[in-house]
Amino acid sequence: MTQMPDPSRPLRIGTRGSALALAQAHETRDRLMAAHGLPAEAFAIVPIKTTGDRVLDRPLSAIGGKGLFTKEIEDALAADQIDIAVHSMKDMPVQQPEGMVIDCYLPREDVRDAFVSLQFASIADLPQGAVVGSSSLRRRAQLAHRRPDLQLVEFRGNVQTRLKKLEDGVAVASFLAMAGLSRLDMIGVARGPIQPDEMLPAVAQGAIGIERRRADDGIAALLAAIHDRPTGERLAAERSFLARLDGSCQTPIAGLAELRGDRLTLRGEILSPDGARVYAGTREGGIADGAALGADLAQELLSRAGPDFLKG
Ligand SMILES: NCc1[nH]cc(CCC(=O)O)c1CC(=O)O
């Protein structure tokens, strides 16, 4: 039986407090409103500060561990302080806490990275030795592999903070997810998207997942109305790839599943943090085989890279 919220008992939507996270929470609410003919007052957006939001003066790898952007939100879900949690799936560990499940995904946005610069139009235009800002281990390793001359500097913070750093000359270029810029209605900031052949995106980039308590069947029925099946099929392959790698958060990993008709193609790569070593591969098969294809591709790359490659 669907558990319909109403203004006297609104559905509490947990989210990080960044502008992007709030935009994603509002998109989730709006989709539920439209799907069930409910007013905005039947929902409450509940911002929650996470460790990743609090600690801004160090690289994420220095504060270690997975779940930097998710743990406090999952704690609130477990404590019945919220009813659902909205996450950027690229920040989501592959394992959810006991009693929690993610089985609802919104339609995936543009998966690509965006090249952002006030002076240059593309990576190819960057002069030798240019200073480029990114705190993403994946982006840093991919760039170091393609352009070992570039000087990479840490570049943490939300979208607005990173744009300010470019204006202040901390770096001459950086990267943001097209999905984030699009959801913030800031796509004009992008000089252009970077094709996956040039920089394969992070696993689950562009995807929003809704986490709930596994026992809440009424919430499950409510969410089923806004679940996007192709996004779920793609993420099953990508997150299976990530799960089999079981990379530390020190490990640059990229992966992208795409659907054509009833076929799924998965591309994946693992890199050494300095970009000196890259192992990449592809799998193609039936959509229902996505999880198996992901695990198989991960196994191949691990075999080629050797047992210590992912130790971080
Ligand atoms: N923690 C960074 C993060 N997590 C999700 C997004 C963008 C939205 C998405 O990929 O769904 C971003 C910003 C970025 O990479 O530019």
UniProtKB/TrEMBL annotation:
<comment type="pathway">
    <text>Porphyrin-containing compound metabolism; protoporphyrin-IX biosynthesis; coproporphyrinogen-III from 5-aminolevulinate: step 2/4.</text>
</comment>
<comment type="similarity">
    <text>Belongs to the HMBS family.</text>
</comment>
<keyword id="KW-0627">Porphyrin biosynthesis</keyword>
<feature type="modified residue" description="S-(dipyrrolylmethanemethyl)cysteine">
    <location>
        <position position="249"/>
    </location>
</feature>
<protein>
    <recommendedName>
        <fullName>Porphobilinogen deaminase</fullName>
        <ecNumber>2.5.1.61</ecNumber>
    </recommendedName>
</protein>
<dbReference type="GO" id="GO:0006782">
    <property type="term" value="P:protoporphyrinogen IX biosynthetic process"/>
</dbReference>
<dbReference type="InterPro" id="IPR000860">
    <property type="entry name" value="HemC"/>
</dbReference>
<dbReference type="InterPro" id="IPR022419">
    <property type="entry name" value="Porphobilin_deaminase_cofac_BS"/>
</dbReference>
<dbReference type="InterPro" id="IPR022418">
    <property type="entry name" value="Porphobilinogen_deaminase_C"/>
</dbReference>
<feature type="domain" description="Porphobilinogen deaminase N-terminal">
    <location>
        <begin position="11"/>
        <end position="219"/>
    </location>
</feature>
<dbReference type="Pfam" id="PF03900">
    <property type="entry name" value="Porphobil_deamC"/>
</dbReference>
<feature type="domain" description="Porphobilinogen deaminase C-terminal">
    <location>
        <begin position="235"/>
        <end position="302"/>
    </location>
</feature>
<dbReference type="GO" id="GO:0005737">
    <property type="term" value="C:cytoplasm"/>
</dbReference>
<dbReference type="GO" id="GO:0004418">
    <property type="term" value="F:hydroxymethylbilane synthase activity"/>
</dbReference>
<dbReference type="InterPro" id="IPR036803">
    <property type="entry name" value="Porphobilinogen_deaminase_C_sf"/>
</dbReference>
<dbReference type="Pfam" id="PF01379">
    <property type="entry name" value="Porphobil_deam"/>
</dbReference>
<keyword id="KW-0808">Transferase</keyword>
<dbReference type="InterPro" id="IPR022417">
    <property type="entry name" value="Porphobilin_deaminase_N"/>
</dbReference>
<comment type="function">
    <text>Tetrapolymerization of the monopyrrole PBG into the hydroxymethylbilane pre-uroporphyrinogen in several discrete steps.</text>
</comment>
<comment type="subunit">
    <text>Monomer.</text>
</comment>
